[in-house]
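Let us begin with a simple case.
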Amino acid sequence: MAQVQRPFLIQSRCIRLLCPRQASRGKVVFARGRHSLHTRTVTDHDIAHLASLPLHPLTLADLVKHGRPPLTTQQLLSSANFTLSILPARLAHRIKSLRNLPFIVVSNPHISKIHSNYIHSLSTLLPWAEREITTLEDEVKFTEVMADLVHTHSNTISILARGFIEARKYISPKDVTRFLDEHLRARIGTRLIAEQHLALHFSSQPHKEMMHEDHAHPGFIGVIDTQLKPARIIRHCENVVGEICELNYGVRPHVVINGEPDYTFAHVPMHLEYIITELLKNAFRATVEGGMEKEPIEITIAPLGTNSNSSPSSGNGDGHSARTTPDETITNQTQGNTDVASTNITGATPTLQTDDAIRPLEHSTPGVTIRIRDRGGGISPENMERIWDYSFTTFNDEEATSTLNGQSPQDSGNGMDALNAISGPGGERKHSLAGLGYGLPLSRAYAEYFGGGIHVQSLWGWGTDVYLKLRGVGRVDV
């Protein structure tokens, strides 16, 4: 399979931390082994104390407040200290949440590995937890810790998927969905905070000589593109999905973009790319399976103005919202910071959070609504109720197990599911999540994280409309 160029993805900056390469005037040497990092033993007291701290929802404004690159030394140190101030508690909450699962589930070697990974990452942060980063030398060492954290948790989703498949006799699908929805939403924030500092590090004034000049992008503030053009990402995702579709089935549906294709706003491009890829996979697959490949998939881009409540939040497909959260609001629940899922399973007292709801910014900010319309026949009524479940998939157990073992869906004889095997957020292996029913609920998690949402409306026998709403960061005067 040919590799597709992804020139607009900021992830390439973070990959540079993990894969040392010669830069224009220096060499990046962050890819050291785990054992080269200074660690401290994590005690139960450490976890209990940090997990008792309230978690304030993360906003896009938090990620741009340190300024537009290149950062000065003081701005870079401020970014490092902000990152350090919020990550230990977030890791501790995830450890506590895992420990609150039924013991036999946590004993599964794959779920236990995730627990160990969180312990390891917390052990690398604790030596920094009670100090302030005041020198560039310390900032470089701390950035190594962030690179290690991103690398350590790169395959969290696929490992958890394997663990819950093996432990499915001991935990209900409903509890699995509830736990994963919370846990994976929290993971989005943890990775985003770490990757933001990594990106700022390489575009900062003290370290910018370590970057190739052709990688500079004046619109980026870390992982946020303030000039993000949805049409550009849509065309890229269309090419990726279309090439796989044509390779496997000999045909590829055509995508038509209308509305305002030149519209730009500020958001995280790798989040939008993942969401669009997943939604196009579903649309392409339905279109091909329905024999309607000559009918175009229509994508409409519409600016979402300030103080606009016209676009629905994520829905259950019947025209009504599946969430009770007010529009444009970010909560600890939508960002997975509540630790409620696992405590409901065990009957323990849930951890209550403060500052439970804030808006993306002090004022409503511009954003975008993207409608994806296909003529693929729609979603059957019996499947509609389950589309947001992490455990819902058209694969059987044998096919799902072969997927997690690294075998592609077409190798298992189910060619029509090949489109499931082409994406994975946050460093996941491309085939690791195929057919496991993670794509749509994860897309919703990414959309809702900063106050957006996904709404699905299906006309059974005709087709499906998916409405994606994203809130931007607003105007950045830095």
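The second case is a distinct protein. As before, the sequence precedes its structure tokens.
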Amino acid sequence: MTFTYYTQSKLVFGVGAEAQLEDLLKENHATSVLLVYSGEYVFDLGIHDVVDRAVRNLGATLIETGEVVPNPRIDLVRATIERAREAKTDFILAVGGASSFDTAKAVGVGLKYDGDVWDLFTGVAEPTDSVPVGVISTIPGSGSEVSDCAVLQQGHDKRALENRIVIPRFAIVNPEYSRTAPYHYQAAAVADLAVGFLEPYFTAKNHLESADRLLEGGLKAALVAGRRFVKNPDDLKNRTELHWLSATMFNHCFLATGSENDWTTHRLEHELGGEFDVIHGEGIAAILPSIIRYVSRRQPQRYAQLAVRVLGADPYDDSEERLAAYFADYLESYFKLFGLATSLHELNIPEASIEHIADQVTGGGIRTVGNYLPLTRDDVVEVLRLAY
């Protein structure tokens, strides 16, 4: 329980927060800005005009790429690094959600590395510096706007880089900007948001009781806000709640500082996303209930505790195993409310691919997955079959 907590990120939150962009760029001494985004929403919401005006007022130059796609690819990062080097880019501004932010973070560390940026994702090299990155969030859920994580894929190989160096210098969050987010993508992001409070919760080692209570409260708030989103996606007050939960949930795992986090669900989903181009949050929804059902056969305690503390189940009426099963059933029903897939066959993932996925995520059985109950290759196979 000995740790140091620090984050360099400044969060500018609320309607009209974008008005501070010029000052934020000035604070970071921006003279050549790279703008990273995807889709026409940057223009429809007026964000492009805000950025262009702020950059011009500073006398800086602007280059941009609007070619980011979900499950962002390394090819675009490599090409953008070359353009940014030619333009002597000294600040990167990303607009959107995790895909844009991950791309910007990768470009930032890639600009300060002499080799291929993919080395930093495979572990061949460690990042030592980054061109500063700022973000403007238009969809809540991933927490990437304040996180130390970037996820990219090369071909079917999806990797995560986790390093404090990539935490954005600032995040502008105007909840009005998420009003144009496509429903299915936002629904998947809200599913991911709830799970963000779960992954740090599962630890078999020493941890703080206060962290448990904070994570439980965050999960309960996320579940309530998610249900309200389904009823009325346009509700600004509720979208404000979702944006704040997103920034709180993954603020460098602030709510679980000092404990060993699990991340089983994310590691398995990254393999599915890399192989089959699944939307991240929907991949989470498809496998999480089965992970709970499988793991709770041997370690039901933490799931049972959540069923009692978050869902209000009666601990005197049921065994820990039955309480864990109730928690899994609740989450599955919750994901279905959004219209998300809750099984692998709904995502058109071939059952024959299960063995291959298990090999990939465990290195052919050399590694285990997760910390709460480390899963072997055979365990992963059983989880995925259960999810099918």
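The CA atoms of residues 95 and 187 lie 19 Å apart. The two ends are 39 Å apart (CA to CA).
Keep these points in mind for the review questions at the end of the chapter.
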